[in-house]
Design goal:
- With about 210 residues, this protein is an alpha+beta fold.
- The protein has a single domain, classed as Mog1/PsbP, alpha/beta/alpha sandwich (Protein Transport Mog1p, Chain A), CATH 3.40.1000.
- The chain has 4 helices and 12 strands; from the N terminus they run αββαβββββαββββαβ.
- The strands form 2 sheets. Strands 1-2-8-9-10-11-7-6-5 form a 9-stranded mixed β-sheet, sandwiched between helices. A 3-stranded antiparallel β-sheet has the order 3-4-12.
- Strand 5 and strand 6 form a beta hairpin.
- Helix 1 crosses helix 3.
- It is globular.
């Protein structure tokens, strides 16, 4: 678990670092990846999060978990347990050790004048670039609970026990702040197919005040 947690934190740090380097990009229009249900906002087309029957089934008999200080909640499968509940970090995990899946949510407060629109476009462009390099095998604009963000899924790692992430990043205004919301679901590459429906189901169940 310690190995997975360290890799998750490192991955978040790298994502935020790369994102900050792209803030000089000019705001432009991108169509994203179209889905069966989508909405247009801010000049980009965002697919609305709609879980499949398999993803809904993976959460059957589970529980709703709440991160009250940040006004957020999710539905997780049975037997998942809390691993961390701090002011800016919230972690739950499935049973298991190296084969476990993890929900890791991080909040990054920004200055009130922070250029959120430019930043989220940079995040999309970064995911697009990673896809061209074979690092990401899915990326799109995705709207969850009325908030538009960027969702991407990392490609299968070279080593079976390497970490593979499903991630959604978005900005919201909450408690007088502009916040970057970073929701990550992760497990090892070899266990990703086992946990995939549950991880998508958890991500799509995200509820957040905005």
């Amino acid at each position: 678990m310690k190995h997975i947690s360290v890799l998750l934190v490192l991955g978040l740090a790298l994502s935020l670092c790369n994102l900050s380097n792209k803030l000089s990009l000019k705001k432009s229009t991108s169509s994203g990846t179209e889905g069966a249900s989508s909405s247009e906002s801010g000049g980009t087309l965002a697919e609305k999060a709609e879980p499949t029957a398999a993803q809904i089934s993976a959460l059957a008999g589970g529980q709703q978990i709440k991160w009250d200080p940040q006004g957020m909640s999710w539905t997780v499968p049975p037997k998942w347990t809390e691993a961390a509940n701090e002011s800016k970090m919230f972690v739950w995990r499935s049973p298991g050790s190296g084969d476990a899946a993890t929900l890791n949510v991080n909040i990054s407060p920004m200055d009130e004048n922070f250029p959120a629109d430019i930043s989220i476009k940079a995040a999309y462009d970064q995911a697009k670039g990673r896809a061209k390099n074979g690092e990401v095998d899915e990326f799109k604009w995705l709207e969850i609970n009325g908030v538009k963000g960027v969702e991407f899924r990392e490609s299968n790692p070279d080593k079976p026990d390497g970490i593979r992430r499903l991630q959604w990043m978005a900005y919201r205004k909450f408690a007088g702040q502009v916040q970057l919301v970073n929701v990550m679901l992760a497990t090892s590459g070899k266990e990703f197919p086992t946990h995939q429906d549950a991880m998508y189901g958890i991500l799509y169940s995200t509820k957040l005040v905005h």
